[in-house]
């Protein structure tokens, strides 16, 4: 069984948002057109308390995009984004959400960030996503969403580690930094992942 995983297609990550991915909105029609091709559609949602320590605003004298050590892990400091219950944390109104069967929230612990939809950055806690997919009988996971070089990458790498055949749909994702995406795609394929595009999936059905 094939699952489509939609990572963090939230207002704060889209043009005009607090941590906007350039051109991030271009992938939404593609994700919408892909959804009917899949047996199961699941989403993740970045969902931070306002006091989250990944926010530069919670560290005196620090600026966004600086790096610190947070509880033993290197942490990039971000502008405040996807704060629980705020409009910026909502999914894009353009994203079709009716077919999404479950939403896994991440980044809820103020002490640790969570780029992957499966585990926090220290692999200290699971979101339950792997158990859920296994429980549904999923063997293949297709990853889309934002952003290609960070949360999509870490989610796809964890999906491989959890034993799923894992695909990144290249035109269904968009990077924050294009050069970083070239590197993360290579890491993913070296680890056994596959990069595909949406046209091949729609034609294959
Ligand atoms: Zn975040």
What can you tell me about this protein's structure?
By secondary structure, the protein is of the alpha/beta class. It has a single domain, classed as Isochorismatase-like (Rossmann fold). The chain is 22% helix and 23% strand. It contains 5 helices and 8 strands, in the order E-H-E-E-E-E-H-E-H-E-H-E-H. The chain has a 6-stranded parallel beta sheet with strand order 5-2-1-6-7-8. The protein has a two-stranded antiparallel sheet with strand order 3-4. Strand 3 and strand 4 form a beta hairpin. The radius of gyration is 16 Å and the shape is globular. The model has no long low-confidence stretch (mean pLDDT 97). The site of zinc ion has 6 residues, from loops. Zinc ion (ZN) binds next to loops.
Number of helices: 5
N-to-C CA distance: 14 Å
Mean pLDDT: 97
Strand fraction equals: 15-25%
Percent helix: 10-25%
Instruction: Please tell me what the overall shape is.
Output: globular
Q: Let me know the largest β-sheet.
A: 6 strands, parallel
Q: What gyration radius follows from the Cα positions, in whole Å?
A: 16 Å
**SSE string, helices as H and strands as E:** EHEEEEHEHEHEH
Secondary-structure blueprint:
Blueprint lengths: L1 E6 L20 H7 L5 E7 L20 E4 L2 E4 L23 E7 L22 H7 L4 E7 L4 H11 L3 E10 L3 H13 L3 E3 L1 H7 L1
Parallel strand pairs: 1-2, 1-6, 2-5, 6-7, 7-8
Antiparallel strand pairs: 3-4
The protein binds zinc ion.
């Amino acid at each position: 069984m094939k699952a489509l995983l939609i990572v963090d297609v939230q207002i704060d990550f889209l043009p005009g948002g607090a941590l906007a991915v350039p051109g991030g909105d271009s992938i939404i029609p593609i994700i919408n057109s892909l959804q009917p091709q899949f047996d199961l559609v699941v989403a993740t949602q970045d969902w931070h308390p306002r006091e989250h320590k990944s926010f530069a605003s919670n560290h005196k004298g620090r600026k966004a995009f600086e790096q610190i050590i947070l509880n033993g892990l290197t942490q990039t400091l971000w502008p405040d984004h996807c704060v629980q219950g705020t409009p910026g944390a909502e999914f894009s109104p353009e994203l079709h959400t009716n077919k999404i069967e479950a939403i896994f929230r991440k980044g809820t612990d103020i002490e640790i960030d969570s780029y992957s939809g499966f585990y926090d950055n220290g692999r200290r806690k699971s979101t339950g996503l792997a158990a859920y997919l296994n429980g549904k009988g999923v063997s293949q996971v297709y990853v889309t969403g934002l952003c290609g070089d960070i949360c999509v990458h870490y989610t796809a790498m964890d999906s491989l580690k959890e034993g799923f055949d894992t695909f990144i749909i290249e035109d269904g994702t968009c990077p924050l930094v294009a050069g970083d995406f070239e590197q993360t795609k290579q890491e993913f394929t070296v680890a056994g992942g596959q990069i595909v595009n949406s046209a091949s999936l729609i034609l294959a059905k």
